[in-house]
Structures are given as structure tokens and as C-alpha cells.
Amino acid sequence: MNAERRTQIASLLASDVLWSAYALADLQPEMAPYCRWFVHENGSRRGVALLYSGLTPPVLFLHGDPAALEAAIDGATLPKTVSLSIQEAHEPVIARRYRWVERRPMWRMALREAPFAVDAQKCRGGGGEDISGPSSQPFPVETGLRLRRLTAEDAAQVERLFACGGPFTPDAFAPRQMEAGVFYGLEDAVGELVAVGGTHIVDYGARIAAIGNMYTRPDARRRGAGGSILRAVVKTLQAGGVETIVLNVDQRNDAARRLYEQFGFAVHCPFIEGMATILG
Fold first, then answer.
1. Residue 229: which CATH number?
2. CB count, 10 Å around CB of 207?
3. Which has more pLDDT, 197 or 143?
4. Is the same domain home to 149 and 101?
5. Number of helices (H) and strands (E), helices first, in the chain?
6. Do 133 and 253 sit in the same domain of this protein?
């Protein structure tokens, strides 16, 4: 992608940075092999669609005026199955091409204020350091769990943990997210992960990050694991200069929403995600 087109897309997405945070981060050069962009501008009617192939199935994201989006993707060859990330106003555009297989009402949340200070000296670096400490670790000490920063070498453990399943298990994890992202885990005395959380994408240049992959094994829930991990991820991102931090939560998941609100996140907008298959 040349610089002019990148600037054009970034300008269009900037009309709602919090909704477009993932797409803005996908403008990083290293993400180019996974991205197909569709753009239409006609006066005040402007739209951007992104087909991201870095996950299976590919993700189709829409932003902007529905009529402009209709024109942007008109005639485009799209996959038979996609994971949609759209706002309600975009449903008519999708309905002409896809039918829902699974439709999940979601909240996009964004960090408005963090109820804890960032210790930049302690968070600096990319090693496996434990940044929690007694004052910021809400998980009871007697459990014997240890919080540590994860690396790409821990990807198999993360996948095994997700295999425990249950409602709201992350479904958009890819091991490469751990290479450039920020991940933390709580492990037991034998080194097995019982909880994990991290980022879907980080762009330190644009100072944007999206938190995701938050999961606690069913038998370890309701004891502060999610709070410990969320605190560590946010502190590390902020220490790296990230200013815009977003996340997604299923509208049925009241417990997760309450947790995020306790840590300074607020709802930015509703949206819809889920699997869809092409018509015909």
C-alpha cells in the first residue's frame, strides 16, 4: 500500500477512532499481507471495509456510511464464510451478501481512566517479569498462583487453556499475537496456566491497542484472576506509550462488563459480531 492510500484510509477511520481501533492498527506495514481494503468517497458519503485474513475465517469489518460501503464492496470477491464486525446500520449491506450463522450483540469498550498508577520503570522491557507486586495483585496470595508475562513460547499452553471451554471462550486467538503483543498469565505451582489475557493487536506508533483473549479456567473463577491480568496488561501498554485501549465484550457477559468498568473502561458503542455465510 502506498503512503497516499494509507493516509486516505487512516483519515477515514479517524472519524471514530475507538470503533476503528483494530483497523487503524492493521495499517501497520507488517499487517499488509493479511489486509484487503475497500474504500469509497462521494462527498459526505464515506466508507471503509477491511477484509482481514489473519484469522480463520477472515474478518470483515465495516466503517462509515452504508451507501458508501455498498459501493466500496460492490463487485468484490468475498470469502464464502466470514467473521463479521459491524454496526447495526451496516446490517442491510451485509444482508445483501451474507446470512448470519451466529450473531452476537457486543459492546465496544474503551479505557477512560485507569484506577491505578503506571510504574513505567517496573513495566519497561519485553521480558517475562512479574509486574504485579503485593500492592497490585488482587488474586489471593494463598492460592499459590504466580503472575508472569508470557511470550510466544507459551502459545501452546494458552491454546490448551482455551480448550477447557465454557461460555465466552476466546475465539480470535492466533499465536503470532503473542510475538508483538502483551500477554500475562497466572500459573499454578507446577507451571500450568489457569488464567490468561493479552492483546489482539498493538500499534505503538499510533498508540493504539486492543485487549482480548481474556480467559480463566472455570474452577479458578471469581477469585480475582481477571483483574490481576487486566491490570498488568493495561499498565504495560501505558508504560509503552499506548493511549487508546479498547476491548470487546459480549452483551450477555455482565460479569466481564462489570470487571472492565471497575478498571476504568466504559461502553463506546454497541456492535454485532459473528459468523456469516455467503448467499446463493
1. 3.40.630.30
2. 15
3. 197
4. no
5. 10, 12
6. yes
Helix (H, G, I), strand (E, B) or coil at 110: strand
- Do 120 and 259 reside in the same domain of the chain? yes
- Domain co-membership, 41 together with 118: no
Sequence letter at residue 49: A
In whole angstroms, give the CA distance from residue 41 to residue 63.
12
Helix (H) or strand (E) holding 84: strand 81-86
* Cα–Cα distance for residue pair 109/166, rounded to 1 Å: 22
Range of the domain at 25: 3-107
Pair 55, 149 in one domain: no
> Quick one: 232 and 259 in the same domain?
yes
Phi/psi of residue 178, each to 5°?
-80, -20
- My answer on whether 86 and 131 are in the same domain is no
Domain count, the chain: 2
Q: What is d(CA 271, CA 269) in angstroms, rounded to the nearest whole number?
A: 7
The model's pLDDT over 1-16, given as tens digits with 9 standing for 90+, comes to 899 999 999 999 999 9
Confidence bin at 140 (pLDDT 50/70/90): very low
Round to whole Å and give the CA distance between 119 and 124.
Answer: 9
Distance CA 80, CA 86 (A): 17
pLDDT number for residue 118: 43
Whether 213 shows a pLDDT value over 70: the answer reads yes
- What letter represents residue 116's amino acid? F
Nearest CA to 232 out of 139, 165, 162 is that of 139
Q: Which cell is 235 given? A: 499498565
Nearest C-alpha neighbor of 237 from the set 186, 194, 200, 185: 200
pLDDT tens, 227-267? 999 999 999 999 999 999 999 999 999 999 999 999 999 99
**Secondary structure class of 25 (helix, strand, coil):** helix
